[in-house]
Amino acid sequence: MNLKLYNSLSSKKENFRPLSNKRVKTYGCGPTVYNDPHIGNFRTFVFYDLLNRVLKMNGYNTVTAVNITDIDDKIIDRVNQENSSLKEITSKYELSFKEISHSLKILPNNHNPRATEYVDEMIEFIQTLIEKNFAYEIDGNVFFDIESYPKYGKFVNIDDELQVEDNELSKKNVNDFTLWKAKKDSDGNIFWNSQWGKGRPGWHTECAVMIKTLFKGQLDIHCGGIDLKFPHHENESAQIEAIQGHNLSNYWLHAEHLNMDDEKMSKSLGNFVDVNSLIKKHGSSVVRLFLLSAHYRTKVSFSYKKLDECKKMIEKIERFAQNFDLHDIENIELKFSSQHHSFINSLNDDLNTAEAIGVFFSFLSEINKKIANNSLNDSDKEKTLIFLKLFNSIFDIIDFDNLESKETPVEVQDLVNSRQEARKNLDWKMSDILRDKIESLGWHVEDTADGQKLIQKK
Ligand SMILES: [Zn+2]
After folding, report:
1. Domains held by the chain: number
2. Per residue in 239-254, pLDDT tens?
């Protein structure tokens, strides 16, 4: 099946067709770096990574950008609260974003542009909008004039009641949005000089100009969280499309929220779960699998029970993988059979990870049955290694090298031997006591047709 993606422009799944043959350009709105990100933010960032990996699986070369928003009201508030500097705050949280991304196996992006590095281009861009009569200046603020751009409203009906920003500033139309914000007293020394006076660019202009500069204003896929669809993506695309006369992106993909008790998880609501402590406590693979386990367009509620289920799934895959010689798994050539194709088809059906995981686990059960009745042949073994590699090329939650290098400590092996003896004597009580002891030393023991199998707990 060819790759199909749900495009927010048409509200339909569409066959994906890139602008150029094998090269795909994507942009995702990145973090505003003013405090530690929560797990909900990372649902979006892991979704970008999923898209990137599925594009690669389909043979595309990707050029990806996820920006760093390092100019924003929230950052300035934080600088004031902490009596710190813009650079100090933003560097700290940009580093934190990158460290967590690395830990969650998010592939590095080709570009992580910072808004502060494009301010000259932003000023030039806003000036062009004014000259072309798409923007106007009042009291040092510059606004986009939505009446001047009849295509405004690709994501919403603008006759509906829309969310209004910066309404305290005088502007012609309530829905006109800010391109340049005049300096306020509370901005302190955070400002740039422009022909309209001291101030700074607005968020929507930041993304638009970074895309214009890095990708000449033309993307294959633009993605973001669903809450960015309006007004951010509407405004981001309106200003750039008004200037260039063609669209900014052919596909717009939006990921749903991660909820906490049926409410969107957010810093402002104070109901967020800190991603760093989750990773420390549960391991990055468990957190990554949790974020990928539901389809990206479904609302998901955070729960520790779900994290626990993901942990068990990983342990199950690891126990399964230990039945095979994983020495050269990275060098295996990916030749696909029908079961592999079902997995690929699920991912190509608008990145349906939930279904793909289901396909993978039914394959595991099938092979486990063959292991149990000793009917596993060489072709099954080869198919399994290919599937493990294919699965990990997307989900990336199994460390094959580490699986092999784990040596059983003598203490644990002695307990396993005693348990073997107890089981031979049908002493089930002793067998259970020994299992508990093994568990308390951090190992899980499973009874299989081939005897006891050990796996180190996460
Ligand atoms: Zn953006």
Report:
1. 3
2. 999 999 899 999 999 9
Beta bridge partners of 7: 12
pLDDT of 168-196, one tens digit each? 777 888 889 999 999 999 998 999 999 99
201 occurs within a structural domain? yes
Contact assessment for residue 305 and residue 42, using Cβ atoms and an 8 Å cutoff: no
Range of the domain at 340: 316-399
The rounded Å distance from CA 344 to ligand 1 centre is 30
Q: How remote is the CA of residue 291 from the centroid of ligand 1, in Å?
A: 22
Do 71 and 188 lie in one domain? The reply is yes
231 C-beta neighbours (distance < 10 Å), count: 19
Q: Do both 421 and 448 map to the same domain? A: yes
Is the pLDDT score of 405 beyond 60? no
Q: What are phi and psi of 132, to 5 degrees?
A: -90, 10
Domain membership of residue 134 (yes or no) is yes
Please indicate, yes or no, if residue 190 is contained in any of the structural domains: yes
In this structure, what token pair is assigned to residue 232?
């951010």
pTM beyond 0.85: the answer is: yes
Q: Are residues 215 and 234 in the same domain?
A: yes
446 CA from centroid of ligand 1 (Å): 49
Ligand 1 centroid from CA 203, angstroms? 7
